[in-house]
Amino acid sequence: MVKVAVAGGSGQVAREVIDALVAAGKHKITVLSRSKASPDGTVALGVGWRVVDYSDTGALVEALRGTHTLLSFVQLLSDPGCQSQKNLIDACVTAGVKRFAPSEYGYGSVGSVNLPFWKGKEAVREYLKEVNEKEKVLEYTLFMPGLFLDYLATPYQTAKHIAPLDLIFDYQNCRQFMVEGHEDAIVTLTTAADTAAIVARAVDHDGEWPVNGGIRGNRVTFSQIVKLGEKVRGRPFTINKVKLEDLQAGVLKTPWILARKHSAVSDEQAPEFSTAVPIGMMLTSVSGAWDVGDEFNRLFPDYQFTQMEPFLANVWEGKP
């Protein structure tokens, strides 16, 4: 048993992972949070709760004394300049924390130039490289499951904590965006439950973590997502193809936009994100950003990942 700290533990992805760690029953878990109140049920699960100030590195060091692994889920939109995560990294080194996982849980190792709202991921990756430049002082991995397969069930919720979210793949209304000439761009889709289960296994793992921590549930093309959608929905999809040059110019020429926003996006930010998200997703898919590796698949070859077709067939059976 080791001590595991979870920064930003009240978020959706964090709570999925916390549940998986609690179910494993192998470690002492403490949530680090700015909030003085824990979400309903977290403390009842036997998880500790510690209020921290992410701007106070000295206090973070004290909070992390004796910690083996720190999993960060700090919300990037609320961490200007990524200072909170940089302070956590510094505190880990000083406190002697062995392992750190930054707030990733998305696309692969391709840069975030077309995903400005995720620019912080790149900054933290670079900071971790700098910290370990002369010698390895902090082991880390980038947990990358691609997109959550659960989002293709929107508006139905299939994960305990991950809420439905509109994407460029809309199974409810049988429609999808696609870049003209790039119909075979790759997307990795992994359920939230599988992602959490792999993270829990990674915490248990005695060997060294891979830096690029790909978690590959399903590796499919845009065209295959349409084909499967038509099969499980029993009707043809409307494909809205966009030109690459329009996306590169920041222009989205589509008859519909993403209406459902992520909980981290404010009402003021929502109009901008309804355009920036689909443009960013399509541009990065063309560059291969969502074709994540299978590093953790190979590390845990016995794990059986949820497959798209039976999962989505079960979700959409009998739905209008």
Automatic annotation (TrEMBL):
Coiled-coil intervals, chain numbering: none
Span of domain NmrA-like: 3-258
Keyword Ribosomal protein: no
Keyword flag NADP: yes
Pfam families attached to this UniProt entry: NmrA (PF05368)
MF terms in GO: oxidoreductase activity
Family, as annotated: Belongs to the NmrA-type oxidoreductase family. Isoflavone reductase subfamily.
Protein name (record): NmrA-like domain-containing protein
Source organism (scientific name): Lasiosphaeria miniovina
